[in-house]
């Protein structure tokens, strides 16, 4: 009987998502109003029946640890767990994780106690919904030693992927890491016999981009890591192709590697569409997150369209369009939000705290009366004073770091615990 361990790579530094990753790791970044990015792979694994899960963490991991410990608690009948393995010093290893493969290698001693037959290696910061049990079934049926999940991509998209070549039996025969457009990779076309979607093929999605999701036989993984190579995609996979049976599992559903502020912003706002690319409203494969036991959101005399509002928010006399309003958000009278991701707050301020704010000349947490905000990300616990004007004038502000905010990819970011004084204008 198979015993599958899921390994979620949760140590991502998330440099390109800074300043959202200034105080948290990339998998811990809030998403979709009430979730964290790490909830996606954890939910995929649980929904697929793989409930023995290790999360490998390293960078800015405190909030990630707290979220996982408060969320993923199995009962005594489930025989499952979500266990955190942070980078640690031992007599054998004294340094940090040097890459995805190195992180797994340094924790094999912990994994072996579960006597796994297979490992499912998952990224901690991608948005997708996949039946990993189907991937595993095909892995076993084909007799593969390693199966790599891949998604069809165009030639232009291929520059950001490790690109696989596969034969008519779906066996991987070659691998090219992020080939520039000047390089001829026509030999890497997906064979028509195994391309699962003629529409994608007709639209130019003729190459297999590795998703960074792998299924390994346990013995194969042990052998593959018996060296000093650090990264699965760049080093381990190319080495294995000519040594063992490597298959590909082609995934045609929605998949997004949320690597930049622009992709994070647009993917969040896409959730507000009538038919979003990623559907959180799938009861058969739900996305799990921390249960907060918050009250329902209160909306007082507002005009709202294409907007998600998470639990426990209070919105009064405001106009909101195409925005994501996170947990415990407060939006006050006369405020206007358009194209805004508001991550909300970790707590409610008491009346005494708000009185102290008034004495100190400090805005309350939330969006103050009469403030207008557009094309912005407001991180947790941020304070925006009354009658501010943010992102209303310049449709493409230059990137930069400022005393009260940041601009990345033309999007204004109010950092976690940031304070915007009343009357502030940010073009």
Count of spatially separate domains: 2
Show unreliable segments: none
Helix/strand class: alpha/beta
- Supply the CATH class of the largest domain: Alpha Beta
Sketch the major β-sheet. Answer: 9 strands, mixed
Question: How much of the polypeptide forms β-strand, as a percent range?
Answer: 25-35%
Kindly report the CATH topology of the largest domain.
Spore Coat Polysaccharide Biosynthesis Protein SpsA, Chain A
Which term fits the overall shape? globular
Q: Count the helices. How many? A: 10
CATH architecture of the largest domain: Alpha-Beta Complex
Rg over CA atoms: 23 Å
What's the N-to-C terminus distance?
A: 61 Å
- Count of distinct strands: 28
Task: Say which CATH homologous superfamily of the largest domain is assigned.
Answer: Spore Coat Polysaccharide Biosynthesis Protein SpsA, Chain A
Residue share in helix: 10-25%
How much is the average pLDDT? 94
List keywords for this structure.
28 strands; 2 domains; 19% helix; alpha/beta; Spore Coat Polysaccharide Biosynthesis Protein SpsA, Chain A; UDP N-Acetylglucosamine Acyltransferase, domain 1; 9-stranded mixed β-sheet; single chain; 427 residues
Q: Can you put this structure into words, describing what you see?
A:
By secondary structure, this protein is α/β, with parallel strands linked by helices. It folds into 2 domains: 267 residues, Alpha-Beta Complex (Spore Coat Polysaccharide Biosynthesis Protein SpsA, Chain A); 129 residues, UDP N-Acetylglucosamine Acyltransferase, domain 1, CATH 2.160.10.10. The protein is built from 10 helices and 28 strands. Strands 1, 4, 5, 6, 8, 9, 10, 11 and 12 form a 9-stranded mixed sheet that branches. Strands 15, 17, 19, 21, 23, 24, 25, 26 and 28 form a 9-stranded mixed sheet that branches. The protein has a 3-stranded parallel sheet with strand order 14-16-18, with no helix packed on it. Strand 4, helix 2 and strand 5 form a beta-alpha-beta unit. The chain is globular. The N and C termini lie far apart (61 Å). The mean pLDDT is 94.
């Amino acid at each position: 009987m198979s015993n599958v361990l899921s390994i979620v790579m949760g140590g991502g530094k998330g440099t390109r998502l800074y300043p959202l990753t200034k105080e948290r790791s990339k998998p811990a970044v809030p998403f979709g109003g009430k979730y964290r990015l790490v909830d996606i792979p954890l939910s995929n694994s649980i929904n697929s029946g793989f409930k023995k899960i290790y999360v490998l963490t390293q960078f800015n991991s405190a909030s990630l640890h707290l979220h996982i410990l408060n969320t993923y608690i199995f009962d005594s009948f489930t025989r499952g767990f979500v266990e955190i393995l942070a980078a640690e010093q031992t007599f054998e290893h004294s340094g940090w994780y040097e890459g995805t493969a190195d992180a797994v290698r340094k924790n094999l001693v912990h994994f072996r106690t579960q006597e796994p037959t297979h490992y499912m290696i998952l990224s901690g910061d991608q948005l997708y919904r996949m039946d990993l049990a189907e991937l595993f079934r095909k892995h076993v049926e084909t007799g593969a030693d390693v199966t790599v999940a891949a998604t069809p991509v165009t030639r232009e998209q291929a520059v950001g992927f490790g690109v696989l070549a596969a034969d008519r039996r779906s066996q991987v025969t070659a691998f090219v890491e992020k080939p520039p457009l000047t390089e001829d990779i026509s030999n890497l076309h997906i064979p028509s016999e195994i391309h699962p979607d003629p529409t994608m093929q007709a639209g130019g999605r003729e190459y297999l981009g590795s998703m960074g999701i792998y299924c390994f036989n346990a013995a194969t993984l042990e052998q593959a890591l018996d060296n000093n190579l650090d990264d699965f995609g760049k080093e381990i996979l190319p080495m294995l192709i000519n040594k063992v049976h490597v298959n590909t599992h082609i995934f045609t559903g929605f998949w997004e590697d949320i690597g930049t502020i622009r992709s994070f912003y647009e993917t969040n706002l896409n959730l507000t569409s009538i038919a979003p690319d990623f559907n959180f409203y799938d009861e058969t494969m739900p996305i799990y997150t921390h249960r907060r036991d918050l009250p329902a959101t209160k909306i007082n005399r507002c005009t709202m369209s294409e907007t998600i509002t998470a639990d426990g928010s209070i919105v009064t006399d405001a106009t909101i369009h195409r925005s994501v309003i996170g947990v415990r958000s407060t939006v006050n009278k006369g405020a206007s939000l358009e194209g805004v991701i508001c991550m909300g707050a970790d707590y409610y301020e008491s009346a005494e705290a708000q009185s102290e704010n008034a004495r100190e000349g400090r805005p309350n947490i939330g969006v103050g009366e009469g403030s207008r905000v557009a094309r912005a990300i407001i991180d947790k616990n941020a304070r925006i004073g009354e009658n501010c004007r943010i992102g209303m004038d310049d449709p493409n502000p230059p990137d930069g770091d400022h005393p009260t905010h940041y601009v990345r990819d033309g999007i204004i970011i109010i950092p976690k615990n940031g304070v915007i004084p009343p009357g502030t204008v940010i073009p």
